[in-house]
Structures are given as C-alpha cells and as structure tokens.
Amino acid sequence: MITASNTEPTTAQAHPADSAAAASFATLLGKLDYLTPADVESVRQAYRFADEAHLGQLRKNGDPYVTHPIAVAVQCTEWKLDAQALMAALMHDAMEDCGVTKQELTERFGAPVADLVDGLTKLEKLEFDTREQNQAESFRKMLLAMAKDVRVILIKLADRTHNMRTMSDMPRSKWGRISNETLEIYAPIAHRLGLNFTYRELQDLSFRFLHPWRYEVLSKALNKSRHRRRDLMTRVQLEVENEFSRHGMPVRAMGREKTLFSVYRKMDNKHLSFSQVTDIYGFRIIVPEMTDCYTGLGILHQLYKPVPGKFRDYVAIPKVNGYQSLHTTLIGPFGTNIEFQLRTHAMDVVAESGVAAHWLYKASEPNSDTSQRLGTQWLQSLLDIQQETHDASEFWDHIKIDLFPDAVYVFTPKSKIMALPRGATVMDFAYAIHSGVGNRAVAARINGEQRPLRTELNNGDVVEIVTDDKAEPNPAWLSFVKTGRARSKIRHHLKTVAQEKSNELGERMLNQALRSEGIATLPSDEGTYKATWEKLLRFTGNKNRIELMADIGMGKRIASMVGKKLAVLLSETGLKPDPLLISTERYASGHDGSASQGLVTLDGSEGLSVQYAKCCKPIPGDRIVGYLGRGEGLVVHAEECPTSKRLQMRDSERFLEVEWADETVRPFETTALVTMNNGKGVLARVAAAITTAEADITHVDMGDEPAQTATDIRFTLAVRDRVHLAHVLRSLKRTPSVLKAQRYKPSKA
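Below the sequence we write its predicted structure tokens.
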C-alpha cells in the first residue's frame, strides 16, 4: 500500500534456511486453538499457496520471504481474527509481488478473502504524476476497503508493525521516510480505532529509527529511574491492594509506564528535562463492574490526596475511539504524582485492542462491541466523503483532519452527546448531525446565547442550530470548519450548485448566440435533431448536452463559436436562418454585422456562475461588460475598469454584452472613500449616517498608517444601485467632520 517496506523481496536460487518458514508456521499453528479444524485447514492451504508464490524470494536479512506474512498472521491471532483474515494476512503480498490475480484468489479461496487481499494491495501498476499522489491513491483504496471491512486495516497495521520491528535490516537511508509515514499515518489510525497497544508500539519504534541517539539516551535514563522508583511502586501497589481488600472489592492493580515516545514528546513540547517529567509511572486498576469504577475512585481519594484539575471521566463520556476509564492523578508517598486509571475488564480489552475487541470477546462479552460500533461510524463516514470527493489528494486532506482524535464533547438540545475533533466549530456540529442541517444553517445558540457559526466549541456546550429552508452553504465556511465530513459536504454542494448555475447560464448564452445566427429557439437534443447534437458534441469534445452547457457557462467554450457550428449543422437538416431575426438581433445588440454572443441580463440571482469583479465592484446603473474567464464563469466588470480594458485588448473574443435587469433581487457591494477629520465619535457618526441611508457596511479599511488630522477610510457598502449610492454619499457629506465622500474607483491602467 503506501509502504516502501522492508518486505521488498530479493530472488535467490535456494536457501538453506527454508526450515525457518516451517518453524514460523508451526508458531502460527500453535496460536490457532480458537479456530475450528476446518478453519485451521483453510489457513494451512493459504500458507502453502503463499509459500509456493514466494518461493525463492528472500527478505533483507536472508530469511525466506514467507516468514513475513506468517509473522503478520501471528500478530492477527493476538486479536483473534477469523480464518479469512488470517488467510488474507498470509497472502497479502501475493498479488503485489508474485503476479497472482484477484480472480485466481477468488476461485481458490473465495471472494471475501480475495477482497481482503485486494484491499491490501498497492497500486504500483498504475502511473501517477507524483509520489504524493501515489501515496494518496493507495491510502484512499485502503481506507475504502477498511470502511467495508475493518479487518483490512487490522491486517495492514499488523504488516506495518512487523516491518517496523525488523526495520534495522533495511538500508538506513529509508528509516526516516518509513518511520515518519508510520508516525503520521498508521499510528493515528491505530489510535483512532482504539488499538492502543499497537499505537504505542508504532510510536516507540518510529521514535527509535527517527532519532536513534535520543532514543538510546532516554531509554537509559528511564531504566535508571525504573530502578530508583521500584521500591516506591511496590509500596504503592501494596497499599492500594490492601485498601481495596479492606473494602471488600476484588481488584487487579498493575503498574504502568509512559512510552519513550510519550516522554520525549512531553519533554519536547513543554521544554522539560527528564527529571521534570513527574507522571512517567502510574497504575491501572481493573474492577468488577462499571459502578465499581466510581466506588474505587472514592477509595483512592481517601488513600491519597487528588491533584486538583487532574480528573477525567471517560466512562460516562467515552473517547471517540471507544476508550473508557476514570483518570485521576494523586499525590503518593514522598510527594510523587501518580496517575491511576480505573476500568472494568471489558473496558480494558477495548482500551488495548479497540475494534479488535469485537473478535476477541464478541461471544463471551455481549457489551464489548462498543469500540467496534464507534470505529464503524468513523469508517462509514469515509464512504460518505468518498462519494463526494473523487480527487485522491483532496480525499487524503479530508481524512488527515479526522485521524487525530483529541475530541470535545458537546450536547444537542435533547442531551445527545456528540464527539468532535478539538477546535471543531458550530458548522462541524451542524454537519455531524445531518448534511441537511449544515446546508441550511443560518445561526446558532450555544448554552442559550446567540453565537456566530464559526465559534469553536468547548466541552459541555449545548448547541442548537437555527435553519432556514432558503439558506445555502457559504464558501467562506471552508476557511474555518475542521472535520473532513463538513468540508466535503460543503465542497460537494458548492460544486453541484455551480454546475447547475453554469448549465442555466450556458443555455441562455447559447440560445442568444443561436438567435444571432437567425434561429429563434435552441432545439431539443432528442428526436429530430438528436443526430445534429451528436455531431455538435463530437465537434466540441463534450460527453453530453449538460456538460457542453456547463462549459459554456464556465467560459471553457465560446457561445458564439458553438452557436455558429450548431446553425451550420441545423441548416444541413433543412432548418434555415431567419434573415429578419438576424437583423433584429444585431441591431438590438449594437453590432454592425459582427458575431454576437447575445445579451445576458443580470439581476443578482445567478449564483456562483456569475462573479462581480472585485477590482471595480459594478452596481446596477453602471455600464458593464462580461468577460468569460477560462474555467471561472462570467466575470462582470464596469465598462471603464482598467482591468477590463486590458483584457479586451488581449482577449476580446471572450467578451460578451451584459445588461442589468429592470429589477434586481439583492444589494451589490461597492466602495466609498470617506475623508474625515479625526476626532472622538466621528466613526460612529459616519456609520450612523450610512445606516440612516439604508445601506449595510460589510467591511471597513482604515489602512496601516497612523491616524492624521484628516484620515481616509474606505467603506465597503451593500447598496441597491447607483441612485441608492448617491443617496448614501449625500448623507455622508452632510455629516459633521466629513470633508469628502465619493465612490472609490481603481486607478487607471
């Protein structure tokens, strides 16, 4: 998959260590006691197939290559994965390295096993522009496969874990890249799915090969500390066990230690020395029932004093990966801070094995599939994003956002708990509820108070979304949403709306262009003129009429050129141009016989297919021209705009005539330059004058220069038309302290 692993085979004639493979497989067989005899035989057949497929291939250390797939399968037995998963683990490199086809695997081992192996296979046979694209595409395939079957990622994580364990056999030049990839991609996935043991091991192994010297120094420091603190830990464990025994509660107390990577990261992030990291050691207390977690907390708090602000309840509100425990930090003997985690046996299984707990205890523990359910919710969201995002790199960007599970927990008005990534906003919450809620959101109340949609959420917030059936997503939301789901839903909607608006604009433009050629209406692409449309589409290179209209609306095709070609094709069927219509259209458009693309009328309802140029900000009443930007639709400029004049000199064929509708449906932005005497309350009076004239201020630019006696301020205003703007300027000029008020226009080219 993404990996450039040390499993890359090398070929040899024969190798005396073939017995190593048999010994490895014997180890695997010894761990299959949870399978039926029929399943064990299926695993044996998969081993024989893999052994034959990899015959003569060696790993970098000289062992037969098949020892790697066996090691991956052994890791999968730790999670008690079923026979199909173990078979796929044994054959996971057969398609990639040995030329075995999916069809062959399907015929011999069945479709489920073949699908698992296919999900684990790299896309090396396809050509990509960059390594990043290859990585993104491979990762997308793996994620989608795991969304359908989580066993894919479990096998993949076992594969990566074994590769990292044997990294020392690889050339040192590859250590950095593979370790970074593991740290940035695979470890977060393991954490996201609750595979904490694997998560910690991958982090430590990555740290070891990324920073060998730091790893060695820190490892020695931790060993010394371990010897010094042994008596302390023994004493604490004894005191804790005696206290629980005194209260008649049977528990299991286990000492635990921060991983080297966790210690290193804390030292690095907080600029601490090793001696300043005080919470390296802790205890895990396994209690019989969930309610015993809280009883045990009381017992511990009576035994040692708690550190204020260091209590976390992940039992009532689990982490997004299914993790449940009570965390408390206590002041132990000699003033040492010690963290305690209280959890049940079922919680402990989920905490260490995450989604794998589904296989480990699904028969004996009816409530142990909490993590499986939570993991599946996230995996299912990948399919939702995939349906709306067909670009691999964009998909990868979405997923990276969701891989790091530091979460905030907020509530709906009906007290349902929602887990979101740290930094998530109101809009992330809205889209987490339903895409329809997100698309129609107009306002929000947090804890009963009106708040902006970009507000970041905090733990415990109660969030209510106010919707409006006429509302639509705003492109500006993309600048502050944090979750991949929200981002993909917004982009998908914007693309869909842009396409629809472009289709409408393209249809109008082609219809007008055809009228200029003497044909009154655009014919249907069915029935009589179906063959004509097929010829036109071959000429333009479009797949269908909708795509052609969108291309015209987006400026990728010139309407007049398409109209001329369509008129010629229609004349071949016997539909002749109307000379009177040609004369009327060209007289109305002011052309003296030149080709016209037709007149487009604008009322402000065009949406994303029409943009009003930021350089000149035209408003109704201005003389305007339209420029068909390549791929950006119709851009409307004021006729005297310097930018527009430069474009006309360079690209005149992409201009078309536009006019304002008699009535527009919304206000338009323009800029007013106001020169005023600097003084107390002046800005407030100017703003009041603008409001009195019924205009909205959307932006204020005061510049970077220190305030002078007379200061220039630019106000971006939303007005109905030129008449309304004139009224606003008159109101400003009558305001005390205002020296001059005028419309701001760009300087001449």
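Residues 668-743 form a domain with the Alpha-Beta Plaits fold (CATH 3.30.70.260).
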